[in-house]
C-alpha cells in the first residue's frame, strides 16, 4: 500500500456500504449526513455545550439501562467511560455533521452514537467498527429515539449557555454600576428627542444603564428553570415505545446527578415531544436583552461622538486605527460589534418563531435550526458582553471640561429656576442665553432676579440632578420684572454702529 492511499474501513446500513476513513470515530450514518447537508459549513462541534449535553444524555441513558437490566453492565461501563472522555474535552472534533440538517436532529444523534461506540470499542481493546461487540444503535442508543434525545440535549445545552451568559452579563452590569459611582458628581445635560432637556449627572446615566441590564439579567435567570422540563423517555412520539416504563425516571435521576440541575419529566410526553414553546420564550428573552444592550451601545456611540464636532461628553478607550485614509481617526468599534450582535439575535428570534410554528403533528422537524439560532445568539451575546466590559466600559472617562461648559450655558438649567422666577422670566432668560452664549447664573444675577449665593445653591449639581431634594416651601412667584432686568433678559438686536 502506498503512502498516499487512505486506509478505510467498510460500514454497511440498509442503503448499502460506505468506506469510512479508518481514523474516524464516526461511521456510516454520519458519512451520509456529510454528503447530504453541506449547508452551514459549521459542524455541531462549534457548540461545545451541545456536544457535552449529548454525551450527558447518553451517559444517563447507559446508567439507567444498566440498572434496568436492558444493557450489559460491561457495555454500559465502557459507554460511560467514553462519555467521560468527551466531557473532558476529547474527541470533540469527531462531531462533524453540520448544525443545519434535515431529519429533526437524527444526524446529530447518529454522530454521537457512532463516536461513543467507537471510543468504547477502543477502550475495550477492539477496533473501530466492530459493532458486533458494541453497537451504536442497539447499545449506545438503547431505550432512546432522536425525538427525545435531541430536544433534551438542546435544552441542556441552552441552559448551560444561558448560565454562562447570565454570569458575564452580570459582570457587565457591575461595570456600568461602578462607572455610575465614579461619575456621581459629574453634571451634564440630559436629552430627549436628541434635544437639550434638563440637567442630570453622568453617574445617573450610567446607573440607568446598570439598572436596565439588571432587569434583563433577572428575566434570563427566571427563564433557565423552564428548560428543566424534558421529554427523555418519550422515545419516538411520546408513548415510550421500546423503553422500559421505569426508564424515564431512572434516566432523569442520572441527569440530575450528572449536572446538578433539577430536571423533571414532562407530565404529557406526547405534547412535550412536539412542543417548542420554551425555545420561543428563551429566544424572546435573548432578543429583549440584546436590543436593550444595543440601545445602550447607541448611547455610548452618541455620547463619545466627535471628538471635536460631536457630543464629546465621554471618551471610549481607543482600540484600533479607525480609517485607512484618515490618519488619527478612532471609531467606537466595540459598541458597533455589539450592535451587530443584537441585529443577529433579533433575526434569530424570527427564525426560532417560524421554526416553532412549522412543526407538524407529533414532532417538530426544525429543531436543528432552533438549536443553532439559540446557541449562536447565546454565544455571541456572552462574548459581546465580555468585550464591551473589558475593552470599552471599564476604560470610559468623562470629558469634564466640555460637560462643565455645556451645563453652564445650557437653557435646560433654567427649568430649575422656574418655580422661583416664573415661566415668563425663565423663557426670556433662556432666549438671552441662546442669543449671547452667556452663563445662566451670571444672567440671573445681573437681572437682579437672585443673589449669587442663592442661584449658586439652586444650580448646584446635587440640586439640578435631583440628588438633593427640596425640603423647604417654594416662595410665591413674583411676575414683576424690573426695567433693568428686562434690559438684561431682552437685549434686543446688537448695535451695529
Automatic annotation (TrEMBL):
GO terms for molecular function: aspartate ammonia-lyase activity. Residues 414-464 form the Fumarase C C-terminal domain. GO terms for cellular component: cytosol. Keywords: Lyase. CDD domains: Aspartase (cd01357). InterPro entries: Aspartate_Ammonia-Lyase, Fumarase/histidase_N, Fumarase_C_C, Fumarate_lyase_CS, Fumarate_lyase_fam, Fumarate_lyase_N, L-Aspartase-like. One of its GO terms (biological process) is aspartate metabolic process. PROSITE patterns: FUMARATE_LYASES (PS00163). The keyword Lyase applies. The keyword Lyase applies. Residues 17-347 form the Fumarate lyase N-terminal domain. This is Aspartate ammonia-lyase. The gene is aspA.
Amino acid at each position: 500500500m502506498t503512502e498516499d492511499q487512505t486506509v478505510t474501513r467498510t460500514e454497511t446500513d440498509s442503503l448499502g456500504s460506505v468506506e469510512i476513513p479508518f481514523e474516524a470515530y464516526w461511521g456510516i450514518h454520519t458519512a451520509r449526513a456529510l454528503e447530504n447537508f453541506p449547508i452551514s459549513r459549521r459542524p455541531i462541534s462549534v457548540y461545545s455545550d451541545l456536544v457535552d449535553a449529548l454525551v450527558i444524555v447518553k451517559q444517563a441513558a447507559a446508567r439507567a439501562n444498566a440498572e434496568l437490566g436492558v444493557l450489559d453492565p460491561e457495555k454500559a461501563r465502557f459507554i460511560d467511560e467514553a462519555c467521560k472522555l468527551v466531557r473532558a474535552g476529547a474527541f470533540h472534533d469527531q462531531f462533524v455533521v453540520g448544525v443545519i440538517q434535515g431529519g429533526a436532529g437524527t444526524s446529530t444523534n447518529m454522530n454521537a452514537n457512532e463516536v461513543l461506540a467507537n471510543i468504547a470499542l477502543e477502550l475495550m481493546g477492539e477496533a473501530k467498527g466492530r459493532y458486533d461487540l458494541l453497537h451504536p444503535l442497539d447499545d449506545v442508543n438503547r431505550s432512546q429515539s432522536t425525538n427525545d434525545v435531541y430536544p433534551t440535549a438542546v435544552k441542556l445545552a441552552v441552559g448551560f449557555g444561558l448560565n454562562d451568559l447570565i454570569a458575564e452579563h452580570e459582570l457587565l452590569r457591575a461595570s456600568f454600576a461602578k462607572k455610575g459611582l465614579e461619575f456621581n458628581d459629574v453634571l451634564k445635560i440630559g436629552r430627549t428627542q436628541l434635544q437639550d432637556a434638563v440637567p442630570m449627572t453622568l453617574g445617573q446615566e450610567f446607573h440607568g444603564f446598570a439598572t436596565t441590564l439588571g432587569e434583563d439579567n433577572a428575566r434570563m435567570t427566571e427563564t433557565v428553570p423552564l428548560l428543566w422540563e424534558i421529554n427523555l423517555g418519550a422515545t419516538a412520539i411520546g408513548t415510550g415505545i421500546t423503553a422500559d416504563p421505569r426508564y424515564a425516571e431512572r434516566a432523569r435521576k442520572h441527569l440530575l446527578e450528572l449536572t446538578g440541575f433539577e430536571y423533571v419529566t414532562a407530565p404529557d410526553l406526547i405534547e412535550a415531544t412536539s412542543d417548542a414553546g420554551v425555545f420561543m420564550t428563551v429566544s424572546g428573552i435573548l432578543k429583549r436583552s440584546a436590543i436593550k444592550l444595543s440601545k445602550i451601545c447607541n448611547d455610548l456611540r452618541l455620547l463619545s461622538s466627535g471628538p471635536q464636532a460631536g457630543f464629546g461628553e465621554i471618551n471610549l478607550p481607543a482600540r484600533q486605527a479607525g480609517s485607512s485614509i484618515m490618519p488619527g481617526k478612532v471609531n467606537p468599534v466595540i459598541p458597533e460589534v455589539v450592535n451587530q450582535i443584537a441585529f443577529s439575535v433579533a433575526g434569530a428570534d424570527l427564525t426560532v418563531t417560524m421554526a416553532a410554528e412549522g412543526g407538524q403533528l407529533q414532532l417538530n422537524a426544525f429543531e436543528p435550526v432552533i438549536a443553532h439560532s439559540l446557541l449562536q445568539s447565546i454565544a455571541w451575546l456572552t462574548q459581546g458582553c465580555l468585550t464591551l466590559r473589558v475593552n470599552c466600559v471599564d476604560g470610559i472617562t468623562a470629558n469634564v471640561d466640555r460637560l462643565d461648559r455645556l451645563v453652564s450655558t445650557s437653557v435646560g438649567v433654567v427649568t430649575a429656576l422656574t418655580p422661583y422666577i416664573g415661566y415668563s422670566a425663565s423663557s426670556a432668560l433662556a432666549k438671552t442665553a441662546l442669543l449671547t452664549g452667556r452663563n445662566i447664573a451670571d444672567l440671573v444675577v445681573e437681572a437682579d432676579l437672585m443673589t449669587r449665593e442663592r442661584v449658586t445653591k439652586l444650580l448646584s449639581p446635587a440640586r439640578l440632578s435631583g440628588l438633593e431634594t427640596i425640603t423647604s416651601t417654594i416662595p410665591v412667584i413674583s411676575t414683576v420684572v424690573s426695567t433693568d432686568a428686562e434690559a438684561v433678559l431682552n437685549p434686543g438686536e446688537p448695535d451695529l454702529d
